[in-house]
């Protein structure tokens, strides 16, 4: 089975930085898009950033210039470097990856369990 494990969340002050990591493990044939989504209390889950297998990136307008998504294909890992954090960035951040399993070559849309990011003074 494929699993996404997230790390790096925590409590930071406004203007601070945080780096999230998400590693995919299991029987993996290949990974297409990877990305980060977030959900604040009382709000719907929203896209933060995505990155294709070829390295093309897409960002929500609210994080452009502050967040950087990257991936290490050899490690099956996607990162989200978050700088100049604002209280509005407070949310549970979820890793997402479109992965074709090495068993049966079936593609699924996988989600991590979420990691809490709190930006507060």
Describe the overall structure.
This protein is elongated. β7 (67-72) and β8 (77-82) form a beta hairpin. The chain has no helices and eleven strands. The strands form two sheets. Strands 2, 4, 5, 6, 9, 10 and 11 form a seven-stranded mixed beta sheet that branches. The chain has a four-stranded antiparallel beta sheet with strand order 1-3-8-7, with no helix packed on it. The model has no long low-confidence stretch (mean pLDDT 96). The chain has strands at 3-7, 10-12, 18-25, 28-39, 46-51, 57-59, 67-72, 77-82, 91-101, 107-111, 115-119. It starts with a strand and ends with a strand. It has 121 residues and is mainly β.
**How many individual β-strands?**
11
What percent of residues adopt helix (DSSP H or I)?
Answer: under 10%
Shape: elongated
- The chain-level structural class is mainly beta
Averaged pLDDT, please?
Answer: 96
Number of helical stretches of at least 4 residues? 0
Instruction: List low-pLDDT spans.
Output: none
**Largest β sheet strand count, sense and barrel closure:** 7 strands, mixed
Intertermini distance = 40 Å
Structural Rg = 14 Å
Secondary-structure element sequence? EEEEEEEEEEE
Strand content: over 45%
């Amino acid at each position: 089975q494929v699993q996404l494990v997230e790390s790096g969340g925590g409590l930071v002050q406004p203007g601070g930085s945080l780096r999230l990591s998400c590693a995919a493990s299991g029987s993996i044939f290949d990974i297409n898009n990877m990305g980060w989504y977030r959900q604040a209390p009382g709000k719907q889950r929203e896209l933060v950033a995505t990155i294709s297998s070829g390295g093309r990136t897409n960002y929500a307008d609210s994080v452009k210039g502050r967040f950087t998504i990257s991936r290490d294909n050899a490690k099956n890992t996607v990162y989200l470097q978050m700088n100049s954090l604002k209280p509005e960035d407070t949310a549970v951040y979820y890793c997402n990856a479109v992965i074709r399993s090495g068993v049966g070559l079936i593609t699924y849309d996988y989600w991590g369990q979420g990691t809490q990011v709190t930006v507060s003074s």
